[in-house]
Specification:
- The longest helix is centred in the N-terminal third of the chain and has 18 residues, at 29-46.
- The chain has a domain at 21-115 and 158-181: Rossmann fold (3-Layer(aba) Sandwich), CATH 3.40.50.
- With 182 residues, it is an alpha/beta fold.
- Helix 2 runs parallel beside helix 3 (89-102).
- Helices cover 48% and strands 15% of the residues.
- One of its GO terms (molecular function) is NAD+ nucleosidase activity, cyclic ADP-ribose generating.
Length: 182
């Protein structure tokens, strides 16, 4: 699937209507927003790929219907897994929605940013710790189980691994090429 867009590079924080995007980025802001994810976002936009990055959702805020519509209307979702991703219920809710959209042929690609996919799959380390905290806090076994299932499923999807402290432009060039070629 090639992403060729005549709309030009653009982004969105929420307006009052969802738009169709080529790429939806899911990430834990405090881990990657000011480094890896912002570089990825800029590289995609420079390539003319219409990319959504959420800059408006405040910590503790519920995910809006508009965000779910934005996920639904995107062609590809890229999930940037970082060590604290699973501590965010917002990220986990996005992940569940992304995997629902995958059933309708949305392309989903994980980026494992300084995390091992087996840690996500087996829900060990920080991922296991986060889910245990959610189970204590919510007492909603079904919701936490949906998050567990989603993490397991996406950790089995072929993705990109990034295990360096500094982000190189070569890496983003590679990501752009891979996205465009898929």
């Amino acid at each position: 699937m090639a992403l060729v867009t005549s709309r030009g590079a653009s982004s969105s924080a929420f307006t009052h209507q969802s738009k169709n995007f080529d790429v939806f980025l899911s990430f834990k802001g405090e881990d990657t927003r000011l480094g890896f994810t912002s570089h990825l976002y800029n590289a995609l936009c420079q390539q003319g790929i219409h990319t959504f990055i959420n800059n408006n959702l405040l910590m503790g805020e519920q995910i809006s219907t508009e965000l779910f519509k934005t996920i639904e209307s995107s062609m590809i979702s890229i999930i940037v897994f970082s060590e604290n991703y699973a501590f965010s219920t917002q990220c986990l809710d996005e992940l569940v929605k992304i995997l629902e959209c995958k059933k309708n042929d949305q392309l989903v690609r994980p980026v494992f940013y300084n995390v091992d996919p087996s840690e996500i799959r087996k829900q060990k380390g920080k991922f296991g710790e986060a889910l245990a905290k959610h189970e204590e806090k919510f007492k909603d076994v079904e919701k936490v189980q949906r998050w567990r299932n989603a993490l397991y499923e996406v950790a089995n999807i072929s993705g990109w691994h990034y295990k360096h402290k500094y982000v190189s432009t070569d890496y983003f060039l590679l990501l752009r090429v891979l996205i465009v070629l898929e």
